[in-house]
Protein: Bis(5'-nucleosyl)-tetraphosphatase [asymmetrical]
Organism: Brassicogethes aeneus
Amino acid sequence: MVKTATGFVIFRTISNKIEYLLLQTSYGVNHWTPPKGHMDPGETEMQTAYRETNEESGLKPDDYKVYEDCKQTLNYDVKGKPKIVIYWLAKLVNDKAEVKLSHEHIAYKWLTLQDACQVVEYEETRTLMKNCEEYIKSHNLA
């Protein structure tokens, strides 16, 4: 059975710059990733994305707007086993919302695409973020 995780690529616009929320894991090589997590039995993909984003970042569904038509699926192996990760783009709409990390993460950053691509370890995640930036610009969401 393939493990499936879902989450959101959350962005905000500050001083006309698009910034993305990345979380640094507290395990393994401490890689940087958008909020995401594994599906629980009986959950839909979207329910998982909302739950995991809240658990990992403290952000609530009212804090951001999800663009369901900007959905991307990543397929890769973890320890020799296939994994699927589904992301949707989301815009932070509550500028007073505070990120509150769970025990699964040790740090967070809001980074431009260029800076995010420097800290993100995996090419699949860099491509994901570049695709999100293209969507944001082509739909005038910034």
User: Anything to note?
Assistant: The helical segments are 45-57, 113-119, 123-138.
